[in-house]
Request: fold
Amino acid sequence: MPESLRPAGPAVTLNGVSKTYAGGTTAVDGVTVEIAGGSFVALVGSSGSGKSTLLKTINRLIEPSAGSVAIDGSDVTADDPFRLRRRIGYVFQNVGLFPHMTVAENVAIGLRLEGQKATADRVAELLALVDLPPAFAVRMPDALSGGQRQRVGVARALATEPRLLLMDEPFGALDPVTRDQLGTAIRDLHDRLGLTTIMVTHDMAEALILASRVLVMDRGRIVADAAPQALLAGEGGVEAQALVAVPREQMRRLSALESDNRHPRLHGDDDEGSGTA
Amino acid sequence: MTDFLEALSRAPDLLAQHLLLAMSALVLGILLSLPLAVLSARVPAVGRVALGFASLIQTIPSLALLALFYPLLLSLSTLVGGGIPALGFLPSLLALTLYALLPILRNGVTGLAGIDSAVIEAADGVGMTAGQKLRLVEAPLVAPVLMAGIRTAAVWTIGAATLSTTVGQPSLGDMIFAGLQTQNWALVLAGCFAAAALALAVDALLGVIERGIAQRKRGRVWVALGVLAAGVLVALAPALPSSKPTVVIGAKGFSEQYILARLVGHRLEAAGYRVQYKDGLGSGVMFAALTSSDIDIAIDYTGTIWTNEMKRDDNAPRDAMLAQIGAWEAQRGLVLLGRLGFENAYCFAMRGDRARALGIASLDDLAAKGDELSFASDPEFLERPEWKSVKAAYPIRFASANAYSPTFMYRALASGRADVISAYTSDGRIAADRLIVLTDPRHAIPNYDAILTVSPRMAKDRRFLSVLRPVIGRIDVEAMREANYMVDRDAGKVSPDAAARWLVRKIGL
Reply:
């Protein structure tokens, strides 16, 4: 694939996007944000902050109550939702591999929907993209580990060569080692394929490491919008700093443990606080 | 065992009809419940209503459901100016289809609701249209659960199809009902055996399809479907249009009716007609079916038409009654061909030895000596208009009066527990038990002459009527009793078909 020759992914513009559910709950409250083509943006926030809802207004899995979303300047409601979604890669926490289809059939589903035939070579190529051997093509999803399933999910999302990749807690269900490996692989793919990637996560450390821009959400609004370096430098406001404080505190304790090892003390079993905010 | 095997030989034709009916209902049930299940899964309000309705249908006894379609279709037919058959295949098909809905619908809705929400999100996420999602994801995932529902529906439908006999649709139920009526247990057993075997076979084939789908083995699915289709085709063969004109003969649910229907049917077959029988009809249903030409021939009784259909509560001399019935039926397009020659009325019967000893031969004699005698009747008789008019004409007072089921009523008389019973004049047991029927000199008991009536559809068919006319006036009550007894007796009983052939020889028709 001549990846380097590809144009950068599309810009995404959200303009006054709100989502209010029947019953009065406001999940997203008037969000306006411009995401540049080719950027890797992390949407961070605690549970219920509205980050997933906001992400899904881009591929219209959720229709906003007010406001508009545009991709490269054209409104997402201009076309049928299914056509829109075929141009956008979507990866989410529960993966949702089709249990009655082989890995190859899962990966090739987007091509099949478009009436294209996926060759074994193309499937192998897509599997290679996510570091899976070609032999996996004939397996059924229930014969895969969690990490392998999510890799197949990523391969499926990339099969139709989308320019925009939306990820909703993509590593949420994975163990830390797999999580780290897959995160690095995604960032790598993002750079190689020149995608625009928007990733929802509740893990600030993950956001800081992978993204080039971090949007922090709280109660349906964007409360911070900064580069990772700026956030680590203390910018972005109270809510953002409360989230940054968690990995920072973990770092501090780990460092303290390391120095303890060099200067042992009697009780060194304080291993709490490894959870995320 | 030989009785059973002989009874089983009646099964193939009925089995074919049974299979066609049940499969039609199952296919229609699937066609209706699949879109309903999808809609129910999408719109919860529809789901609640649809499942509620289907569950409600299940609470109606299947016999009642079949019976209810008769008046429903009849009024519908009247509404649109006729043409909708209220008896036979249509009501059976509709009732069984409703019966098949619930298991398919319920499993479909449950199956759709049970699909992992992540899989649905993924289907939307990759850009499937609603149709693609249904075809590529939901249908294959719900198929195993759905097939289980279809299997349940198939077994239920095949079982309930036995009841379609009661609305005049031939099925294996014909054997069961006829066997029950004539106490021919080999016939009942053969009917049950055939129905159960059919249900098991269809269930096994559907099971193969179910496992084929689950294990992604298409070959098996196609083979099983092929066998099912072949079965239906074989069953369909006799139903293919025939060049012969077809007539339908109705019969109520007792031996005499079965025998006479066959007797008439054999004559018509000999004259080149194709004959179908609708057995086990109720009095009201049979008359309405005749009026609407759902059946072409019915043998009824003057008193029944007089009281039940014409709603008369007076009595009339025999000939006057027949003339009035003929005129009344003619207004409805029916042709009353005439009396068969015997009567099947309520009567009073005594053991011959006892009657002679007491010197009783008529109801007048009975009125004089009744206060020493005990009376046994069937449960209905003491409530019927016949009993009221008898009491009005003859001041009878019995020492005791008890109600029995008919079989026990005859036993009570035989054992001496009862002296007099309310019998039926053409009952074979009158001859067999050597009973004496008391005469009715004051003509208090209405006349129940057996009469042959033809539907409006065939009323003007001269050739058809000419085949039937020779039967008129030829069947005397002794011959009829004997034929009835051949079917009713406990040992050495014969089929109504054989009894009809015997009767023809006996009366030299």
Q: What stands out?
A: The first strand of chain B starts at residue 246 and ends at 252.
